[in-house]
Amino acid sequence: MRRALLLLLVLLAACGRKGPPLPPLREVPETTTDLVASQEENEVVLRWSYPALTRSGQPLRDLEAVEVWLTEVPPGQEKSLEGPQAVELKRQLILGRGKQVARLSGKALEAATRGSTLEYRESAVLPAGQAAPTLLYAVRSRRAKGGVSDFSNVVSFQVQSPPPPPSNLQAQPLAEGVALSWEAPAEASFRVERKEEKGSWQVLAENLAAPRYLDTTAQQGARYAYRVRTTVRQVTGPASPEVAVDYRDTFPPPVPSNLVCLPEPGRVVLRWDPGAEEGVRFKVFRRLGEGSWQHLSDDWASASYVDENPPTGELTYAVKAFDRQGNESAEATCTARGGS
Length: 340
Prior knowledge:
This protein has helices at 2-15, 86-97, 106-112; strands spanning 36-40, 43-49, 63-73, 99-104, 113-114, 117-123, 134-143, 155-158, 167-174, 177-183, 189-196, 202-208, 212-215, 222-232, 235-236, 243-247, 257-264, 267-273, 281-288, 294-300, 304-308, 313-322, 332-338. The protein has 340 residues and is mostly beta strands. The strands form five sheets. Strands 1, 2, 5, 6, 11, 12, 14, 15 and 16 form a nine-stranded mixed beta sheet that branches. Strands 4-3-7-8 form a four-stranded antiparallel beta sheet. The protein has a four-stranded antiparallel beta sheet with strand order 20-19-22-23, with no helix packed on it. Strand 11 (189-196) and strand 12 form a beta hairpin.
């Protein structure tokens, strides 16, 4: 008992002693985990998130460069990259046989930045008359002070012949947008690209399963060009011939809805819903019995109208909407008895 008590006192005394100072924890960039590879025409394309944090979750403010590494697995050996050991095997291949094929820094890093994403492209070489090797890619980030991240997830890719472009691209302007349709082989997805009159090509939609798309973001009064690409097994082919659209506003606004005629002493009050389209004005008409239509207003701004001192008898009122381009809707009607 006495020996155990002495041992406890020694241990307690040791807890208060200072040991040798530990070296500061070296902050390195976070490890990239979302690297993906695809092929666009004759280029291999890598995309991953821009490294914004250190491994401890602090903001990364001194990113110096991002390195792209590559190794190849000869044709016929790609089966070895399957199964439960595939992730570790790919990592070991990058560590043991990988070579740095690009260093993105300065202007090159700026050019590779797409918002919160980085993009790297290189030529996709398809060997003539033989199978292509399997390409293994990884990236890692380097700080200005020398700290370097671990390698990212390793992606594998095999260069293929790009699929042909879609054919018979058609564009039909509609009130709700520009409707596109095209012809293409089955088991493919599609990318739609749009260019404004003085702009550059932008991806409008991708991974579409059906050969059709409605561009609801098109603005009436603008001119656009559209083209479509086919994607099969992560390989995107060349663009279809483009089709131009002069998206003029030739579409009438909606018919005024929920029109009601409310007879009051010495007048009839008309009310209706104004609708969502901006800049719409209204025309108001009245007819007594089966007589001819009388124009009460050809340019009315609000969604209500008061007909003072209407004639006595069965009255029919009509309201039409028209827009800035002069497109006019069909009429909405209601009835009331005047002179009450």
